[in-house]
Amino acid sequence: MGVTHDALVWLAKSAGLFYLIGLSLLVLAYTFWPSNKTRFDRAAKSILDQEDRPCR
Amino acid sequence: MIGHLTRSERQLTLYMLLAVVITGLAMLVAGKDDSLGVHGALVMVVGIAAIFGVIAEFFEPEPTENRLDSYYDEPSRIGIVFAMAWAAFGLFVGAWVAWQLAYPSLNFEAGWTSFGRLRPVHTTSVIFGFGGNALIATSFYVMQRTSRARIPDQISPLFIVFGYNLFCLLAVSGYMIGVTQSKEYAEPEWYADIWLVIVWVTYFVVYMRTLLHRKEPHIYVANWYYLAFVLIVAVLHIVNNLAVPVSFSSAKSYTIFAGVQDAMTQWWYGHNAVAFFLTAGFLGMMYYFLPKRAGRPLYSYRMSIISFWGITFFYLWAGSHHLHYTALPQWVQTLGMTFSVMLLVPSWTAAANALLTLNGAWHRVRDDATLRFMMVAAVFYGLTTFEGSFLAIRAVNSLSHYTDWTVGHVHAGALGWVAMITFGSIYAAVPWLWKRENMYSPRLVEVHFWLALAGTIVYVLAMWNSGIIQGLMWRTYASDGTLAYSFLDSLVVMHPYYIARAVGGTLFLIGALVGCYNIWMTVRAPRQPMAGPEADYPEPRVPVGSVPQAAE
Out of A9, A32, A55, whose CB is closest to B331? Predict the structure, then answer.
C-alpha cells in the first residue's frame, strides 16, 4: 500500500478543506460579479420568449 | 416513426439494428445454457421487430429541408410516451408489492412474483423507466429551446431513447428470471451495464454538441443541472459497476471491490444516484418548466447558481451517511453526516427560489393544476431535503435506520418531488410537443393532482408512523436488560400501516393511469386547423394579468 489511511485523512482534512473554501469563494465571486448581472437577468427572462423555432 | 429521417439515415438505422440483432445472436449462442441466452433472444427479437418497423416505412417520402426550421421533438415525444408507460407499469408493481407486505400470500407462490424480485422491478421501473425517460425527453426539449438550436443530427437522439429503454427492459426482465448483481439501484449485470455506458456516452455527446451550436451566449441554468446529471451519472455508473464476469457465456459477474470498500462505493453511487439522477435532473426540469408555466422569470438567477454549485459539490461527499455504525471508519461517517447537514442550505435555496418565483402568480397556482403539481413538488423537495439532512445525523439514524421511516422519506422524495415535478412538466410539454391548444381534459389533470397528493400524504404518514414505532420497539429494553419486543412483535404492529401504505400507493397509481388516459386522448385528438402557413404552433401564450383559465 503506497497511501496509508493516515495520509488520506490528513489530505482530506487539510487540502480538502481549502479546496472547498476556495471553490466557494470562486462561485460567490462569479455569482456576484457586477458585470454578470445583465447576463443573468437576460437569461432568466429569455426562456419566457414565445419564439418557438431554432435560430438559423 | 421514422418518416422524419432521410434515406441515408434510414439505411444507417437498419445497419445499427442489424448490429443489435447480431449481438443478440452472439449472446444467445454463447449463453445458451444460462440466463444470458434468454436475454440474447430478447435482444434479437427486439432488434428484428425494429427492423420490420423501419422497413415498413423505408420508402415513405423523404422529409423536406424545412425540418431544420423547427426543433427536433420526435425523441421527446417518444420519451414521454415511454415514461408514462413505465410509470403505469412501475407504480402497478409498487402497489402490488405494497399489498404483498400487508398480505404475503399475494405473491401467489411463484418465484418471479416474490417480493425480492418484484421490489427491484418496481424501483427500476419508476426510477429509470419513468424518471429516466422523462429526464431524457425533457432535457432534449429544454436544451434545444434554451440554446435556440436544433439537435445537430437525427439518429443519435433516437438511439439514446430506444437504447435506454432496451437497457430498462433487460434490467426488469432480468430480475424476474433471477439475474442481479445485488447492488441496490445498480442491479443489472455486466452486459446491460456496458450497453448503458454506450447509450449514456452518446447522450453526453449529443448534449454537448447541441450546446456548442447554441445561439444564446449564456447557457441557461436548467442545462447546468441536466449536464451535471448526465456527466455524474456516467461516472457513478462506470465506477460502481466495475466487475469481472464469470465468463463471456455467463450473466453472472463479481464486483472488483470487497468488504467495506464495496459498501462505500455502493453508497457513494447510491446516494449520488439520488442526488444527480433524482435531484439535479429534475431541478433542471423545474428551473425551466416552472417559470415558463407561471409566466414569470426565476425569482433569483444568482440563487440558482449558488445552489447549483452547493448541490453538486456537497452531494458527492454525503453517501457515507448510509453506513453509520458499520465497519466504515468513524471519520468517514462523520464526514458524510456533516456534508448532509450542510446540504440543507443549497437545497432550501432551490426550493425557496421556486416558491418565490410563484409570487405574483399564486392565482394561477390556484386555477392551474399543472402549475400546482410543480408548486407541490417544490414544497416536497424542501420537506424531503430537510428530512434527509436530519436523518443523516448519526444519533437520529440510530433510530431511523432499517425502519420504514427511510421508506417514507424516499417516497416523500420520489412521489412528492420527482413524480410531481415530472407530471407537471409533462402536462405542460404535451400540448406544446403535439401542437395542441390544451390537454384533452383539464378536469382530469385536476383529478390526477388530487389523487397523487392524497396518495403521497397517506403513504408518507403511514411510513412515518410505522417507522418510528419500529425503531422504538427495537430499542426498548425490559427491566432485566433483554429486548422487550421480538421482531415478529413489531411486524404485527406494522400491519395497519402496511394496509394504509398500500392504499396510498394505489391512489397514486390510479392518478397516473388517469394521466396516461388524458395524455393518450390529447395525442389522439384531431390536429387543430393551422393558424397560418407555418406548420409550427407557437407555444401557448400566458398573458400577464389576464383572466385565469380553468384548471389546465
Answer: A9
> Which among B5, B346, B46 is positioned nearest to B170, based on CA atoms?
B46
* d(C-alpha B538, C-alpha B552), whole Å: 18
Residue B450 C-alpha cell reads as 388530487
* B137 vs B123: CA distance, rounded Å: 20
pLDDT given for residue B455 in this prediction = 98
A47 contacts in chain B (CB < 8 Å): 145-146, 220, 222, 288, 291-292, 297
Nearest by CB to B309, which of A27, A44, A48?
A27
Facing A48 at nearest CB: one of B148, B295, B329: B295
Rounded Cα distance between B286 and B220, Å, is 12
Residue A11, Ramachandran bin (φ over 0: left; ψ between -120 and 50: alpha; else beta): alpha
Closest by Cβ to A32, choosing from B148, B302, B313: B302
Q: How confident is the model at residue B1 (pLDDT cuts 50, 70, 90)?
A: confident
Contact in structure between B251 and B36 (CB atoms under 8 Å): yes
* Cβ pair B472, B404 in contact under 8 A: no
Residue B246 has pLDDT above 50, yes or no: yes
Q: Domain ranges in chain A?
A: 24-48
Helix (H, G, I), strand (E, B) or coil at B477: strand
User: Would you list which residues of chain A are within 8 Å, Cβ to Cβ, of chain B?
Assistant: 5, 9, 12, 20, 23-24, 27-28, 30-32, 39-48, 50-56
Maximum Cα–Cα distance across chain A: 60
Length of chain A in residues, anyone?
Answer: 56
Determine which of B66, B72, B298 to mutate to test the interface with A (most A C-beta atoms within 10 Å).
Answer: B298
Q: Contact B305/A30, CB-based, under 8 Å?
A: yes
Domain B72-524 has CATH 1.20.210.10: yes
Nearest Cβ partner for A43 among B220, B313, B432 = B220
B426, B350, B361: which is closest to B142 by C-alpha? B426
Dihedral angle sign, alpha carbons of residues B500, B504, B506, B510: positive
What does the longest C-alpha to C-alpha distance in chain B come to?
A: 86
Planar angle of CA A26, B231, B383, nearest 5 degrees: 75
Separation between Cα atoms, residue B47 and residue B42, nearest integer Å = 9
Distance between CA B497 and CA B525 in Å, rounded?
42
Give the number of beta-carbon pairs within 8 Å between A and B.
80
B427 alpha carbon, distance to own chain's centre: 16
Query: In this structure, what DSSP letter does residue A25 have?
Result: H
Distance from CA of A43 to the nearest CA of B (A): 6
pLDDT level of residue A52 (50, 70, 90 thresholds): confident
Interchain contact, B146 vs A47, CB within 8 Å = yes
- Determine contact: B292 vs chain A, CB below 8 A: yes
For residue B135, count CB atoms less than 10 angstroms from its CB and return exposed for 0-12, middle for 13-18, buried for 19 or more: buried
How confident is residue B20, by pLDDT bands cut at 50, 70 and 90? very high
d(CA B243, CA B226): 28
Q: Which pLDDT value is given to residue B545?
A: 45
